[in-house]
Amino acid sequence: LEACGITIYLKNENLTIIILYDSDFHSFRVNLLNQINTKNYIITGDFNAHDPLWDSSAKNAKGKELSDLINKYNLAVLNNGDPTMTDFTTTPDLTLATPEMGPYATWGPINQSCGSDHLPIMISLGVRYNATGTATKPRWKLSKADWGLFKSLCENNINIGHPQENTSKLAANFTDQLMEICEKSIPKSKPGKQKRLRPPWWNQDCTIAIRSREKARKKYLGQKTQENKDKYNSLKIKAREILKISQKECWESFISKLTHKSTSKEVWDMIHRFRGKPHVPITCLKVNDQIITDDSQKAETLAQHYDNMSKSNNLDPTFQAAKTVQEEIFNKCIPNIENEQNNLNSQFTLYELDHALSSKHNSAPGADTVSYEMLKQLPDQSKRELINLINISWKRGEIPQEWKIATIIPIIKPHKDKLNPQSYRPISLTSAICKTMETMVANRLSSHLEKKWSPLKQPKWL
Predict the structure, then answer these.
(1) What is the CB-side half-sphere exposure of residue 185 using CA atoms within 13 A?
(2) Phi then psi for 407, rounded to 5 degrees?
(3) Is the pTM of this model over 0.70?
(4) Concatenated DSSP letters for 174-233?
(5) DSSP character for 85?
(6) Torsion angle, alpha carbons of 94, 100, 106, 108, to 10
(7) pLDDT in tens, 115-167
(8) Beta-bridge partners for 19
(9) Mind listing the pLDDT tens digit for each residue in 358-391?
């Protein structure tokens, strides 16, 4: 029995949807119908069975056997009598549902072959439910930003305030002023459902080939002559070849442009686009045999899991003991630099800020939605305000509260159970400003260590 299925967890009643091909009806009855654990379900697919109950053009023994099975289990046939083959001759594709679902369902083939001999089937359910995890937040369209206007507004409107104010207040002033400027100079995407984009290899030749194929198919359905049929089959083969060639050329072009500076993210993004792999939200989780579908409850479940995993008491006792010893050794080896004549604790400069930003690539912003590109486009006067903010934080030893906030994105581990919270590894999206400051500190420390400790003078613990 070739079949796959999903269970949709609705607010009141769960729904199982199963798709199968050329079913063996004994397996269909024993292995499938008797194992569905939801009250309502829909079964659809190519049964390769014909009977007047759903197909007036043909009849066979397999159709009679399936018709008896439908009556025995009191199933509803959603087919409306329309043929499901591209030549509109027969209906091997069938959709069955429990009686409770029948009145709410509409069924019909779509007049678009998609290169197959079978027409796609559209099944609609007039059932209200609360969708979870489908909405997307507005994002800055940096590629369409008016950077000239952005820089002009920054020169006159960026001022962190009096240096004696609270560090978090100063950081909030900078972020709020920057966001007001972005609202005027950078467009945003519209919130809503995530759209599935066309693959990168799709071009005008693909569009023309598909249109020609569908035009020939409709002409053949209108006049079923041998000439029209041969032309349709010829254009169908041609369209398939054009799509393959387009895919190959696009991939070869992408590969030829890869350099040592190309990131793994760029490669994987292209692979996912080729596969047509959109982001799939976490629809539900399972904890103690209980299914969780509410977004806030899913977030709380994952947060609790990550909190438990990050606690020190979860570490191996042997590792904890070794960690304590190594930390003590490390602290003894760190020299006292308070009185040393060096620039390690001096204020940061504009050069250090630009050097840190030059190493940054566009990546997902943190909760404040400030991106690296915005910081790079700041005019010198605004960058000085940012440097003043960083130096105040550095001198006081205080991290602004908004820099500590991270957006946690759970990423499913390969080949893991999507219902298990332990199958997701967390990715933290933190403030771009804070990460820029961290890079500035790291650069300064690296330079100091290279000058202070040459390979010939390394301490034993290194």
Answers:
(1) 19
(2) -95, 120
(3) no
(4) HHHHHHHHHHHHS-BPPPEEPP-PPPTT--HHHHHHHHHHHHHHHHHHHS--HHHHHHHH
(5) B
(6) 0
(7) 788 888 999 887 665 555 556 788 999 999 999 999 999 998 999 989 899 99
(8) 4, 44
(9) 999 888 899 999 999 999 999 999 999 999 999 9
